């Protein structure tokens, strides 16, 4: 069964807004949440600014990302909040690139755990989500994408 990456409606709105604001450049950051039987469920997303981002390139600042992650996980009382993976935008209607797939695989191997990647691609009808999961054996699985409560899977 294909697993699904789900986002809350609020997270989806936050990501689209961040993507639109950064145009014509890419932007991206971290996804936080928890895993369910159907796949990763994202309850928080954070922008990790990349001042050198271009229309075709976004690189996550590892130190800044680590700082945000630690602060958020420390502040969480639910104990349910964990690192899910990464997101970034493509100001073109193109999902994850070969480079994106390889980078996710490398992160999963280095971390010793699954990493989800969400790419927001911009088309004529606005942003759409494309998700994948990489595991520590560098196996890549395409995930369905769904926004909670809207029945919107695109
Ligand atoms: Zn990309």
UniProtKB/TrEMBL annotation:
One of its GO terms (molecular function) is metal ion binding. It comes from the Bacteria. Keywords: Hydrolase, Metal-binding, Metalloprotease, Protease, Zinc. Residues 11-106 form the JAB domain. Transmembrane segments: none annotated. The keyword Hydrolase applies. Pfam families: Prok-JAB (PF14464). GO terms for biological process: proteolysis. This is JAB domain-containing protein. The lineage of its organism: Bacteria, Bacillati, Actinomycetota, Actinomycetes, Micrococcales.
